[in-house]
Design a protein that fits this description.
By secondary structure, this protein is α/β, with parallel strands linked by helices. It folds into 3 domains: 129 residues, no CATH class; 106 residues, NAD(P)-binding Rossmann-like Domain (Rossmann fold); 191 residues, no CATH class. The protein is 49% helix and 9% strand. The protein contains 16 helices and 8 strands. The protein has a 4-stranded parallel β-sheet with strand order 2-1-3-4. Strands 5-6 form a two-stranded antiparallel ribbon. The chain has a two-stranded parallel sheet with strand order 7-8. β7, α13 and β8 form a beta-alpha-beta unit. α1 packs antiparallel against α4 and α2 crosses α16. It is globular and about 75 Å long. The two termini are 41 Å apart.
Length: 466
């Protein structure tokens, strides 16, 4: 059985998306039937056009907000009460969107029944179906049986990168087969398979879905004939590096070769793509600015109240951008005025230099809003690796392999690493975040950018910033 996966989308999350769409469609159908909506134009074509518009403006925003609060991620670590809270936020946002549309055009939601009834009914139905899904352990749908060939340092990458049970909801490692040359790493959680039959026969008899190759030494060790036989029987054969990339959304930096960089076909010099991406970024930036301007004004007032009228509101820093060029970013000041009086240093999780207002605006990423200016002038994108300061960039380039590859794309206001890895402030954290940045650089596309932007809402809404 082959696995189809688009970044974090797989069979379990796709089933959940499809189920929610069916539930929302059924609720909308019955709501429309009982509402007896009167349409001024009696033409059938216009009637169905209005109904279709209503349906799209109900289902699409609702499913996008559910995605935005992280509920299409089967690896989410939330109890059911937490899921209800997130659903409440999603439906509230969708309702506010629909309410705004109804104010703009009364024909979109003109009905004898209050629109609130539609959203309350839909919310209740989704809560019920989500309870059934969680109770039935929907996240295990399509779970694959994995056989690991090798039990050394490369095989241990799976244990080191996927420690939690939630990281392995999509697969079950049946066991490993040890080969000569493996630098054995003790892992009691994986059973050793002592073969008494040919490898291909064991794989077929045990209903193995995928074979992951993780030998430390492949020369004269790789069972090519057995693997060819398995391939003919539609059993997936995957290298451990590709397996980790697919399951975790990161690149194993210490185990890739320079060819990974050299043969990367995506280029940052396509001016047509770059132009349309700038248009896209500017359009999204204008929307965000039109929504957040009251927050911007309130932030300025709060900073002035805390630190005095003469205290600066903004703070500029030099950062390294595309092709290593240094540029200046502007942020709301979240630290005391003389924060770097004794020299430049990275900010920590419990940094005493952060002000009270600063802790709030950092938590909800409000301090980043002035960087919209950098997006408008084109030295940043909405999505990309976070730009680092020049002095720290030099340190990381000297210590972390392939770190400079981050500069092959424009830095971003948010990114894949911000979604997948918690806030970090040191060399080890920079190394871990690079794994996700390299994944983004390899797979970057407009669709992935949109996915990251939508899912960034979860960080902002639930205060998962720094």
């Amino acid at each position: 059985m082959r696995k189809s996966k688009f970044h974090d989308l797989n069979i379990s999350s796709a089933t959940l998306i499809f189920t929610d769409l069916i539930v929302l469609s059924v609720v909308f159908y019955f709501f429309h039937k009982i509402s007896n909506a009167s349409i001024s134009n009696n033409q059938e074509v216009m009637k169905y056009l209005v109904i279709t518009t209503q349906y799209i403006f109900f289902t699409m925003p609702t499913q996008l907000t559910i995605l935005a609060v992280g509920l299409y991620n089967e690896k989410i670590r939330e109890n059911f009460n937490g899921i209800i809270v997130r659903l409440s936020v999603a439906f509230l946002l969708s309702y506010l969107f629909s309410l705004t549309l109804s104010l703009i055009s009364s024909s979109i939601y003109f009905s004898s029944q209050p629109i609130e009834l539609l959203y309350i009914t839909a919310f209740t139905a989704i809560v019920v179906t989500r309870f059934i899904a969680v109770s039935c352990k929907y996240e295990h749908m399509g779970k694959r049986r994995i056989l690991l060939l090798g039990h050394g340092k490369r095989a241990n990458l799976i244990s080191s990168t996927m420690r939690r049970a939630t990281d392995r909801v999509n697969f079950e490692i049946v066991g490993y087969v040890k080969f000569a040359g493996d630098n054995v790493v003790d892992d009691r959680n994986i059973k050793q398979i002592n073969l008494s039959v040919p490898l291909e026969k064991y794989i077929i008899e045990e209903n193995i879905d995928e074979v992951v190759i993780a030998l430390d030494e492949r020369r004269n060790n790789l069972p090519s004939e057995s693997l060819f036989y398995c391939k003919l029987h539609d059993i997936q054969i995957t290298d451990v590096i590709d397996f980790i990339e697919r399951e975790t959304g990161q690149i194993a930096v210490n185990h890739i070769y320079p060819s990974f960089i050299l043969y990367n076909k995506k280029s940052s010099d396509n001016w047509v793509f770059n132009f349309f991406k700038w248009i896209f970024n500017s359009f999204i930036g204008l929307i965000i600015l039109s929504v957040t301007w009251p927050i911007i004004i309130l932030t300025i007032i709060c900073i002035k109240i805390e630190d005095g009228l003469r205290a600066p509101v903004f703070y500029t820093q030099k950062r390294v951008g595309l092709k290593g060029k240094v540029f200046s970013i502007c942020k709301f000041r979240s630290m005391v005025v003389d924060a770097e009086l004794s020299g430049e240093q990275m900010s920590g999780k419990s940094d005493s230099r952060i002000t009270r207002v600063g802790r709030i605006i950092r938590k909800y990423r409000i301090d980043e809003l002035p960087q919209l200016f950098n997006i408008f002038i084109g030295n940043m994108s909405f999505v990309g690796p976070r730009p680092e300061r020049p002095q720290f960039t030099k340190q990381f380039e000297d210590s972390i392999p392939f770190y400079s590859h981050r500069h092959n794309v424009k830095p971003g206001l948010t990114g894949w690493a911000q979604l997948k890895y918690p806030y970090g402030d040191g060399l080890n954290d920079a190394r871990e975040k690079l794994k996700f940045d390299l994944y983004y650089i390899k797979h970057r596309s407009l669709i992935l950018d949109i996915l990251i932007l939508i899912r960034t809402s979860e960080i902002v809404i639930f205060g998962k910033g720094r």
